[in-house]
Hints:
The chain has about 160 residues and is of the alpha+beta class. It has helices at about 5-15, 20-30, 30-40, 50-60, 150-165; strands spanning about 45-50, 65-70, 75-80, 85-90, 90-95, 100-105, 110-120, 120-130, 135-140. A six-stranded antiparallel sheet has the order 1-7-8-9-2-3, sandwiched between helices. A three-stranded antiparallel sheet has the order 4-5-6, with no helix packed on it.
Amino acid sequence: MTQTVNDLIRQDLAEQPDGILESIAEARQVPMQVVLECLTPEAALRVPGEHFEEIWNDLTTWGEVIFIVHNRNGFFECDGDIVPGEFGHGYFNVHGDSPIGGHFKIERCRAIYFVDRPYFETRSCAIRFVDEDGDVMFTISVGYNRDHTPKADQVARFETLRGRY
């Protein structure tokens, strides 16, 4: 019996349950969405991209989070508050008193994944925004305390927001 790429990805996840998902996607030569779809239902919940604005607005109440852009060339992390944005000139524009800002082509956002899984031996709760090509546009992760435990208040907010869907 021949293994499918999804079987191989599930095998990778079982062998290294707290590994880097982007590394699996790159090794298996698939978009990140394929890897996200191979996570268990407890680890990943998919929401349609049309919920972007309501999810973003909720995130503005969380306090300092981690904004991540990760691709095969490296990754960028920025700690800061999510600030409100507005639509204009074909973009969702984010400006405010935070290092997190920019212009996003939100019409390309096809899915949003609430991912709750181990990451280097600690719990990781992140929201991944996936584009129409199956690539992650950016990720917003619950922040961490000095002892590298996730911030309990943000984990609760993550669970509550995920529970709405």
